[in-house]
């Protein structure tokens, strides 16, 4: 076992320490609200654009997104470390943009620990208490915090004598000892290895639940977001994309970016064209194969008729496809065929990469786009108002996925494809030979369709379904 965790924190000791820290004051909780908040550095583009979000007292909210999306900037504006260019910040319903950082009663936990190297752990944890009242006895609160975190034997050591996990726990102790009204955590686990992240993730969840403190947590790791947050707020390019419970953001993504960013393995995104003849079945053309939607069509699939002939993005989670012949199809499943390209053995499961002859739809911020057909120069637009609407739609939700340009008349109707365009989750005992043709069944009830802006046009069922793994 790693030296950062010589033992597990006993729950009775943890609860007693938490009760001591919260005694003698109101419950450590605060409501945080941002209304149309924006941030611009100089004359550059907006780092945060019209950001609106409310955090309830005692809630654990996670800001999730790729590097550079503005999530740390939002956190620093809440803390008062960054000025707000426009919009309003409210704390407990009162305007707070003018309040200095030290008067906001918030504690930050940083990625780089930010411990004083010349101070022991005891002195680092007690440092904010010394600023509050230099003559007060700090030891009771310092020791209660140390018991809560299981670091009593580290109090007399210096940061240079501690491991990364131990230093982060000391940094958390310094924040807890202040008894703040809110925790602001800026990727506190990013510098730790996977095992330590798992241990500290559980400790953070326990701490915040027991203390009842409002927490805003910034991360780019969707596993942290899904396991820690009461709600997850997904950001892209300084714009809030979706806010919801972890289960909802996974099962009901608002757009193709959220669908691609949340979930492991990443959702399969394929380019498709809707064919909806009046006298025949509706199909989704993937290029060399078609998915036939079973009849009678569901209300969601009926709405796809208005997308007739348009190039869209089809989303399939790896658990929505299974390996089975058409004869074993269940109601609502459509057949597909794939060629085995690669298998990843995960121990408890296997991930099989298939080539289906489809064209992937890459998401620009998450991966490099594959070469596509040259995009033709756009013809003159219909007018200023239409151009402004298009620009606004692109800023808010897209374009998120890279779609090939429509084929020119007379061009080869067989599109360029990429290998390994479909990943399927299956059991660990499956044995498949590379290059083998394998029958697949797609559960169309778990099929997502996104328009060319990346917005979801065919949602999952209102009742979140259970997948057969």
In short:
24% of the residues lie in helices and 26% in strands. With 469 residues, the protein is of the alpha+beta class.
Description:
The chain is an alpha+beta fold and 469 residues long. It folds into two domains: 11-251, 3-Layer(aba) Sandwich (Rossmann fold), CATH 3.40.50; 256-369 and 415-458, Beta Barrel (OB fold (Dihydrolipoamide Acetyltransferase, E2P)). It contains eleven helices and 21 strands. The strands form four sheets. A six-stranded mixed sheet has the order 6-7-8-3-9-10, sandwiched between helices. The protein has a six-stranded antiparallel sheet with strand order 13-12-11-14-20-21. β16 and β17 form a beta hairpin. α4 (139-149) packs across α5. The longest helix has 18 residues, at 194-211. The radius of gyration is 26 Å and the shape is elongated. The two termini are 32 Å apart. Pfam families: ABC_tran, TOBE_2. This is ABC transporter ATP-binding protein.
Describe the structure using short key phrases.
2 domains, 11 helices, 26% strand, 6-stranded mixed sheet, OB fold (Dihydrolipoamide Acetyltransferase, E2P), single chain, 24% helix, Rossmann fold
Spell out the blueprint of helices and strands.
Elements (H helix, E strand, L loop, with lengths): L10 H12 L9 E9 L5 E10 L4 E5 L6 H9 L6 E6 L2 E2 L10 E4 L11 H12 L6 H11 L14 H14 L4 E5 L7 H18 L2 E6 L2 H7 L2 E6 L2 E6 L1 H6 L4 H6 L6 E8 L7 E3 L4 E3 L6 H4 L8 E6 L4 E3 L9 E13 L4 E6 L28 H14 L24 E5 L10 E7 L3 E4 L5 E3 L11
Parallel strand pairs: 3-8, 3-9, 6-7, 7-8
Antiparallel strand pairs: 1-2, 1-4, 4-5, 9-10, 11-12, 11-14, 12-13, 14-20, 15-19, 16-17, 16-19, 17-18, 20-21
Protein name: ABC transporter ATP-binding protein
GO molecular function, one term: ATP binding
Pfam families: ABC_tran, TOBE_2
């Amino acid at each position: 076992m790693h030296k950062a965790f010589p033992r597990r924190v006993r729950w009775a000791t943890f609860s007693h320490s938490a009760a001591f820290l919260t005694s003698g004051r109101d419950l450590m909780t605060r409501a945080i609200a941002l209304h149309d908040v924006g941030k611009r550095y100089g004359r550059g583009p907006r780092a945060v654009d019209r950001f609106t979000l409310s955090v309830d007292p005692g809630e654990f909210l996670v800001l999730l997104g790729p590097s550079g999306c503005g999530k740390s900037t939002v956190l620093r504006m809440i803390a008062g470390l960054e000025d707000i260019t426009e919009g309003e910040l409210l704390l407990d319903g009162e305007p707070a943009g003018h309040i200095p950082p030290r008067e906001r009663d918030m504690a930050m936990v940083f990625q780089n620990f930010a411990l004083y190297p010349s101070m022991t752990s005891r002195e680092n944890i007690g440092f904010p208490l010394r600023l509050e009242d230099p003559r007060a006895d700090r030891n009771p609160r310092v020791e209660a915090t140390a018991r809560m975190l299981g670091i009593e034997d580290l109090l007399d050591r210096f940061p240079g004598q501690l491991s990364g996990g131990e230093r982060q726990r000391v940094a958390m102790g310094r924040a807890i000892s202040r008894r703040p009204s809110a925790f602001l955590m800026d990727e506190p686990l990013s510098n730790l290895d996977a095992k330590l992240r798992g241990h500290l993730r559980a400790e953070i969840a326990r701490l915040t639940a027991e203390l009842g403190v409002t927490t805003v947590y910034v991360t780019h790791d969707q596993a942290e977001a899904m396991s820690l947050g009461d709600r997850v707020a997904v950001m892209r390019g300084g714009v809030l994309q979706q806010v919801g419970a972890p289960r909802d953001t996974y099962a009901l993504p608002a757009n193709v970016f959220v669908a691609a960013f949340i979930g492991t393995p990443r959702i399969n995104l394929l380019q498709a064209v809707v064919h909806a003849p009046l006298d025949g079945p509706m199909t989704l053309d993937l290029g060399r194969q078609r998915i036939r939607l079973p009849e009678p069509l569901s209300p969601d699939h009926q709405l796809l008729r208005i997308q007739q002939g348009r190039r869209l993005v089809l989303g399939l989670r790896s658990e929505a496809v299974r390996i089975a012949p058409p004869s074993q199809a269940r109601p609502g499943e459509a057949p597909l065929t794939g060629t085995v390209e690669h298998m990843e053995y995960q121990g408890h499961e296997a991930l099989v990469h298939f080539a289906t002859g489809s064209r992937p739809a890459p998401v620009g911020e998450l991966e490099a786009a594959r070469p596509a057909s040259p995009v033709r120069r756009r013809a003159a637009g219909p007018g200023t108002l239409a151009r402004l609407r298009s620009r606004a739609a692109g800023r808010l939700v897209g374009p998120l996925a890279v779609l090939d340009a429509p084929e020119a008349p007379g061009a080869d109707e067989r599109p360029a494809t990429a290998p390994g365009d479909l990943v399927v989750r299956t059991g660990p005992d499956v044995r498949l030979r590379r290059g083998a043709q394998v029958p697949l069944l797609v559960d169309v009830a778990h099929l997502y369709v996104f328009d060319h802006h990346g917005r979801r046009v065919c949602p999952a069922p209102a009742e979140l379904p259970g997948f057969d793994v």
